[in-house]
Amino acid sequence: MSSAADERELRIATGGLRFPRLMRRAAASLAAFMNYVAGWNFILCAVFITIDVLCRNFGGFSSSATTEITSYMLAFGIAWGLAHGLATRSHIRIDVLVNRLPPRLRQYLHAFALLLLAALSLFLSWCAWSLVDESVLFNAKDTSALAIPLVIPQGLWAIGITMLAIFAVVLLIEVVCLLAAGDAAEIDKLLGPRGYQEETQEALEAVGMATARSTNVGDDQP
């Protein structure tokens, strides 16, 4: 009877986690796409600065708005990469004390930290859209020669902050369900700091060595 009851509770817990997990994966996919766009934005920013410097030194002319445009591009790129950073646990964390605690206690600290992040990101999102609303109301424009409407860079920045807030809330919902299910290991996997093994694996994948390594391991096996 006890075994059947445990199995039934496991099925209920798994079913309750299905929808939050699907939401988190969908949000993570969107965050990954936004991070991809942010990466190309930084490349274009570097190319623009390089061309402007060359033209200024050898051609005698400049865009006269390099600082304004690149500052907008940097703010946009950073904001659009925040959610993916949370999804991949890439944000900087001070984990000297947390890693020494047992998983049962660590899961609550992870959840509390995520709760604070969700609250902060929601507040920042509200402030960002309030700023956009003011720019629309007063038709605010940049003071540079291009006179760019501020609603464009501010709106793109606000979208990135909002995506961080959405992903933090979605992740928090899943973590609450995991707390109810008592799955401390999964919470640690979702929110725990990255170890050197994961950092090494990511570096190998970035240079295309991870696949070759796994292939070689498979070939060595009988």
Query: N-to-C terminal Cα separation, in Å?
Result: 44 Å
Element-level helix/strand string: HHHHHHH
Largest sheet: none
The helix fraction, in percent, is over 70%
- State which percent range the strand residues make up: under 5%
CA-based gyration radius: 23 Å
- What spatial form do the alpha-carbon principal axes imply? globular
Query: Number of helix segments?
Result: 7
The secondary-structure class comes to mainly alpha
Query: What is the count of β-strands?
Result: 0
Mean residue pLDDT = 83
Low-confidence stretches: 212-222
Topology, element by element:
Elements (H helix, E strand, L loop, with lengths): L1 H58 L6 H22 L15 H36 L12 H31 L2 H8 L4 H11 L3 H11 L2
Task: Give a written overview of the molecule.
This protein is an all-alpha fold. It has helices at 2-59, 66-87, 103-138, 151-181, 184-191, 196-206, 210-220. The chain is globular. The two termini are 44 Å apart.
Brief account:
Helix content is 80%, strand content 0%. It has 7 helices and no strands.
Features:
222 residues; mainly alpha; 80% helix; globular
